[in-house]
Amino acid sequence: MKRLKRAAFVSVALSFFLSACSTAPDNSVRTNNSVPPGPTLPPQASLQDGVLTLSNERISRRFLWNEGNLQSIDLTNIRSGHRWKLDSETPDIAPFGEVLKARNGKLQTRNVPKSPTVPAYLEAVISFSADQLEVKRTCQIFKNVPAIHCQLAYRGGQRQKQDKAPTSREMIENAKKQQTSKEDRIEYLALPKGHWSFEAVQFRAATDYIDWLTSEEEGEIYRRDQRIDANIIRLEERVTGEQILLVKEAPIGADQVAWPGYDFVLRDKNVAVVGGGIDPATLHADTWKTAYSASVVVAGPGRYEALKSLREYRESWRTYSHARDGMILMNTWGDRNRDASMNEAFVLRELEAAHRLGLSHFQLDDGWQAGLSKNSSKAEGEMWESWTRAAWQVHKVRFPQGLAPVVKRAEALEIELGLWFNPTSKNEYALWERDADVLTDIYAKHGIRIFKLDGVDIPTRQAEQNFGKFLKRVYEKTNGEVVFNIDVTAGRRLGFIHPLNSYGNIFIENRYTDWANYYPYRTLRNLWALSAYVPPQFLQVEFLNISRNADKYPKDDPFAPANVSFEYAFATTMMGQPLAWFEASNLPVEAQKAAPAIKRYRKLAPSIHSGRIYPIGYRPNGASWTGFQSVLTDETTGYLLVFRENNQQDTAHIKTFLPENQYACFTPELGSGAKFETRIGAEGQIEVQLEAAHSYALYSYQLSPEKQKCAP
Length: 712
What we know:
By secondary structure, this protein is of the alpha+beta class. The protein is built from 10 helices and 34 strands. The chain is globular, with a radius of gyration of 26 Å.
């Protein structure tokens, strides 16, 4: 057999999280000498002798009280026992560039019980007053999560805008002049002296126009200010390998309000998160304005520890429930007929076809409602930013009996229905209560709880606040059962790491064979890249009718959709939430051959998605070996999804997050793989085999410290 030559996949640069070619772990990951879990301790917030301590069994952060204007003292990774002394000479925050002299500092705590989607946590509210400004810093501490999340809020008189960053390059003797700008600082760590490297992770949205959704920049902290546009900064102390991650939870780049042009400032040994998203001219003495939030995460040495800590932090946003969140959802908009066919007969026909294929959900996109949008195929469609209550009644001509017949047939076929919805954005979502009532009325009448949110535009913090109230109202009135498909394809939207994403999953992208911009490997690449930082269980990923519009792709294009099987196209979405982006009744007979695989996947999906899913192998590029690993709770079992893209090598060595020197039995569950056992090599490397290009294999695996015969 031909073997994949490693030289063909030499990385351009070794990125600690996610390199241009590989996210595989380094030698320090998942060894048998891992630090065992420490004692179970409840989250705590204590103020004693002028020192505030926020902690749980994984992380501790101490501050000088300073009348509530906190100044960090140290940060500890409790599991590894590593402590960083923070040499701060200034408070952690500088609202609108001002270092405030605080008075009347107060600490209030409360235990917040778990909700249907969020685990219980301790909330600590630190507040103070300063020069006609009231400041409130609300921190959340979850059990057994190596992170502390904090959000600022302000109330009071208007302030001046922050200074712009200097652009000149001073001589080294005058380097301090580079540090005179006044950033709107919302978090700050004065790191101890040492050798610090960093990796900045930047997301990109507006995916109608962008098709490379993550980028990573590496460097070292040095004397001169480095201003970085990013969502996550990973800091590594080179001598010990211990890591700190700073996460700014906000829209992406220029989609932020009052964005200074960057999100992090690295200077000498200091790291600041900047840009709270509040125009100081909008402050008012009677109203609290909340800033963007930030989290501090700690991790031990090694890539796996960094990714795992980041994933544990993200899991505290929303507890995954497959019964509520899992779906293979069909939406017919992908065939570009828009709402031309939308009516009762069409929907009933689509339900039957979706059932035969094994799909679990069917969503009626734009066109089910009385008020037609500007995206309608009908000339009278014009609604978008502003809707009436009457516009959200069921279209009487298309559905003369309402939705009842459709709901009844869907229930009989065990398919759950969802709907498209465009909340009124006019006047900063001032009608959020009315829109929430529209959806909760639909839920009460029909039990429909899956809503795709489109047309979202958030130009101000007031708009964001009202949009958040809309989401929360629907969530509370449905007892947490609602799942929003939050679209990030265009406009000023939430991005991939905003706390409001915790109300559902993220609709990543629109792709169409009609425009020849759907390629299975590109969709796979975007899911693969995002899955290092965002739990893919909450990402909707499309697969299309690959037989449509074959003539719109070049005949010699090896990556054209028609060159893969329908089952392969579906497999590229398995680790996310598969989105069947087509009219099922228009599928060719050939597509029906994938039905057994889809139905088998439905049985496996609850277990697969219960794990922590990470990208493995090489970045998908149409000709690589790539895939994902789902690590289950006990870390001795899981799943491996491997893709052989369009290449000539039937065997490959790929890096995984399996622990080296262990033995593993791999049992094929789907695809064309064969059962095998192997000893795991350095950096989690294993040898995999698939005999045909554009093929895949989904394995379950079982680890053992000693060689054993795999069960038949």
